[in-house]
Amino acid sequence: MKKTFAFGNAFGKPALAAAGVVALTALAGCASKPDSYYTLASPVAAADAAPSTLASAKPLYIELAPVAVPERLARPQMVVRQPNGSVQVEVLEQHRWASSFENELRDALSSGIAGRLGALDVTKGGRQTSQPVWRIAVQLRQFDAVDGGRVDADFSWTLRRSDEARTLVCQLRLGEAVGGGMDAVAQGAQRVTAAAAAAMARSVSTAQANPAATACAL
């Protein structure tokens, strides 16, 4: 007599269930790896900080426009270039800025400039229209980060006081060597941003001290 073994009933369902448990466990393992979040902002060193001017007879106000950045960087994910002059870049899903890169950069520059000048950023309001304000418009022309290599940036900005006709145009290239790992890359980017904020603050101070100047001085 021909015998038929019901492998599907005897082993099929338990095997499928076990396979499902293994798959879910693997997925849970992948999903459980937390994302890492970084900021470009850093505290202004006490030696570089200026006392607030808000209680003085001539308080200092700044307005920092949204920062223009290359389109590939306008995202929260960190973007790194492959080493050795490669044309390839990598968008890192699990290594992110605390907000979209252009917003993170603007906030870090704003706090860095204001802290070094004792100024208040009134971009979103907070001053009377009769009070003059220094308007700063920044463009990030280049920003390349290489894990275990360097962070290089090229900034340009315009500077104009609201009650003056002159507009000063400034440029600055910065670079920082970085170690391996995304923590080191983020720290290098933070140092570059702090150096840019310091240069922008100096440009405001110099322009304020030299009302006749028509060229940017850092």
Number of helices: 3
Query: What's the Cα radius of gyration?
Result: 26 Å
The third-level CATH topology of the largest domain is Rossmann fold
Strand order of the largest sheet: 5-2-6-7-8
What structural class do helix, strand and pairing data support?
A: alpha/beta
Largest sheet: 5 strands, mixed
Q: What's the CATH architecture of the largest domain?
A: 3-Layer(aba) Sandwich
Order of helices and strands: HEEEEHEEEEH
* CATH homologous superfamily (4th level) name of the largest domain: ABC-type transport auxiliary lipoprotein component
Uncertain stretches of 5 or more adjacent residues: 1-8, 15-19, 21-28
Q: Strand fraction band?
A: 25-35%
Shape: elongated
Percent helix among the residues?
A: 25-40%
Distance between the termini: 98 Å
Strand segment tally: 8
**Total separate domains:** 2
Highest-level CATH class of the largest domain: Alpha Beta
Mean pLDDT: 88
Account of the 3D structure:
The chain is an alpha/beta fold and 218 residues long. The protein folds into two domains: 1-33, no CATH class; 36-209, Rossmann fold (3-Layer(aba) Sandwich), CATH 3.40.50. Helices cover 32% and strands 26% of the residues. It has helices spanning 7-31, 101-117, 182-209; strands at residues 36-38, 61-64, 77-81, 89-97, 120-121, 134-145, 150-161, 168-177. A hairpin with a 7-residue loop joins strand 3 and strand 4 (89-97).
